Amino acid sequence: MDQTPQASTQVGSDSTASANLPGWKKRVTVFLVGQTISTFGSLLVQYALLWHLTLTTKSGVVLALAAIFGFLPQAIVSIFAGVWADRINRKVMIIISDSTIALATLGLAFFMLSGVDDLWLIFLVMAVRSVGAGIQMPAISALLPQIVPTDKLMRVNGINSSVQSSLLILGPVAAAGIYSKMSLSAILFIDVVTAVIGLSLLATIAVPTLERAASDEKPSYFADLREGLQYIFSNDLVRWVMVIYSIVFLLVVAPSNLSPLMLVRTFGSDVWLLTILELSFGIGMVAGGALMAVFASKVDRLGMMVGSSIIFGVLAVVMGFTTNLIVFYSLFFLIGLAVPAFSTSSLTLLQETVEPERQGRVFGFVGIVMAVAMPIGMAVLGPLADIVSVEILLIVTGAFTVLVAVVAVLLPAGKRAVAAAHASTGPSAQTPD
User: Fold this and answer.
1) Cβ 333 vs Cβ 139: under 8 Å
2) Does 1 reside within a domain?
3) Which residues are within 8 A (CB) of 329 and not within 5 positions of it... i.e. 6 or more apart?
């Protein structure tokens, strides 16, 4: 719609492809600042809880359970959250889920202050936080196209990717500093404060309710779910993007999660070696997001998605053969550089292609992929790393990633997806800067 929404409950058009949304920069800035503050608090808690469980229990079983409670609920709820994001106001959905997370965290903080720190209580709060994250993810991804002009989505997604990557660098450093000086309950209180700030900023943003969500004649919940699945599997471009996204997400687990193991086995187990490795990856991601923001208007979405997939594979293969520490760090930096290229291009392609009234359900399934890919990938590759060398796993998964990307484009389904992508992201009017 061409007019600036006046209230968050206003009924909006089912299309946000307008080349001119007055005041969009201010709304997007406020939204991203609020999300950044809230995410920073969440990262502090994430690292603090993990370290608390590690230091107090020293149990692999406890850490495995923490991973289950931290990821599985998000994957399960994403199935339902995607449908909700297409049936209610997405801003309201984010506020409710974030408020629930804050209340659960606040409750845990008070329990810990009173001396109650049972594992079941921590796991319960981790599960609640995971559910909240699963609800927010499709709502946030589907909300952005409502407040950002279509031809600026790539730039905004690139900026957001760079900011989020910066938090992944600052988060553990800040968490370590705070955790060494303060109690875990203090960090929980910090997260509550950052959540309140983020929610307060979000409350000031006008986000229209889609006409479909405002209608009293909506299909049943399960009819919506079924229609969303049918859409994903019947749309050539969306189906293709989802398949490639899922496969690549599974395969990049090897270089991103097994590379530290290769570093320790090959180059030494000093903590500073691992620290530099993580910094190399994080700095690469920050730089990659910034480059995507700068060159957004010149980027072919699908071409970038395929190209970055091939780059992932090639870099993994080269890493498997390298015996030089500097080269190893450089390759990991380049992998970090390619991550925003892949994630931003695929996210933007879906945002530009999928109708607003279906985006919640589509991004709900993207959330499922993100939540389950790492546990599944590590469940397979982790044990294999104790049987064969990490180098072999890197070479095999890297070569397979390249093969998947090439074959995906050459198959008839890939050619149809390429044609559909170029049709949906062709030349369009540019929004004035």
Assistant:
1) no
2) no
3) 276, 277, 280
My answer on whether 35 and 121 are in the same domain is: yes
Q: How far apart are CA 167 and CA 36, in angstroms?
A: 8
Q: Residue 14: name the closest of 216, 218, 211 by CA.
A: 211
Q: Is 183 helix (H, G, I), strand (E, B) or coil?
A: coil
Using CB atoms within 10 Å of the CB of residue 399, give its burial: 0 to 12 exposed, 13 to 18 middle, 19+ buried. middle
Same domain, 128 and 270: no
Q: Which two tokens stand for residue 293?
A: 């923001």
CATH code at position 374: 1.20.1250.20
Position 271 scores a pLDDT of 66
- What is the structure's pLDDT at 29? 93
Whole-prediction pTM: 0.75
Report pLDDT for 429. 38
148 vs 159: CA distance, rounded Å? 13
Note the pLDDT of residue 198: 94
Q: Report the 10 Å Cβ neighbour count for 26.
A: 13
Q: Are 37 and 197 in contact (CB under 8 A)?
A: yes
Domain extent for 165: 20-218
Tokens of 215: 């209608």
Dihedral over Cα of 205, 138, 71, 392: its sign: negative
If asked whether residues 114 and 55 sit together in one domain, one would say yes
pLDDT of residue 126: 93
**Number of compact structural domains in the chain:** 2
Same domain, 90 and 180: yes
119-147 helix and 90-113 helix, angle to the nearest 10 degrees: 160
Q: Do residues 324 and 402 both lie within one domain?
A: yes
DSSP at 354: S
pLDDT digits (tens, 9 = 90+) for 315-357: 999 999 999 999 999 999 999 999 889 988 888 888 888 888 8
> Which residues of the chain register pLDDT less than 70?
1-21, 60, 212-214, 216, 253-255, 271, 374-375, 424-433
Rounded Cα distance between 44 and 373, Å, is 23
Whether residues 302 and 200 share a domain: the answer is no
- Tell whether 190 and 254 lie within a shared domain: no
